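USER: If only I could read backbone structure tokens as easily as an amino acid sequence. It would mean a lot if you studied the pair and described how this chain folds. Here is the record:
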Amino acid sequence: MAAVHTTDRPAGPAGQVADSAAHDLLRRAYEATYRFPVGFAGLRAALEFTRAAAETPEDAEVVLTTRGCVQVRSPRAVSVEIDTDAAGRDWLWQEIASLVGHRWPIPYGEADGRHALRLGPDDGHPLGRLVEVHDRFRSRYRVRDGQIVQITREMGKIRFSIHIQERFATADGRTLPTHFSVSYWEIGGGEGAAEAQPKQAHMGGRLTRADTYSDTYVRVAGHYLPASRRVITADDGALTIHELRLSEHTVDVGGPAAAQNGSATAARLGTEAGAGRSSTERERD
């Protein structure tokens, strides 16, 4: 007999109701992921940036390494000082903001807990149980063994799917993703198109890009801080490798007001992750 799930949250779009079992599953997985403690107000670190790329697959790769520094006051207030071009600075800002934004102390209720959810069937899928989120990005999670394994979102004509392959366990038993991939598809889009598509339309479309991520962390004053990120990108043009390394970390600790401020911006940043944020929204020195 199929399990009956109670509903204890407001109705979602088009009469969809929130599923308490879905919230319980996603909340436990969310809280099993490491985040900075309340009061964390940012960090400073030395920065090394390396980029290797070829204009065509036949060309030799050009490797460029530069050094600078970074200061983070919140997921949106990221200052990068380094001698590189605009594309390099944009990549660094985006990745550092993502690294800290996903670790910022945001309660579940201010993240996906704000939305109505639907729990998919317990069908033995190799990536785990499906959780659909009734948000504007048509977000979908798969949760296995208490961990988020897959995240899929849509924005306009782009769909991307994150697959987490490996995690690192912290001293308190929470985990951090260390190896994951992001695949991008071009799909039919436009205003209202996502809502009109059938549920199975989450798959399909033309694959346009694939990124492979490798992250490492270092423990500083009891906090797990980003130490490196390497991204290998394959698209129609060529293969590109970007790597950032952080060292000489120092931690800024503020009061509850600082943490609350950062939480609000991180919540916005988290829902827009991978959605092509504009560089004009960024705070820079």
About this structure: The CA atoms of residues 157 and 191 lie 10 Å apart. Residues 17-278 form one domain. DSSP finds four helices and twelve strands in the chain. The chain has one domain: 17-278.
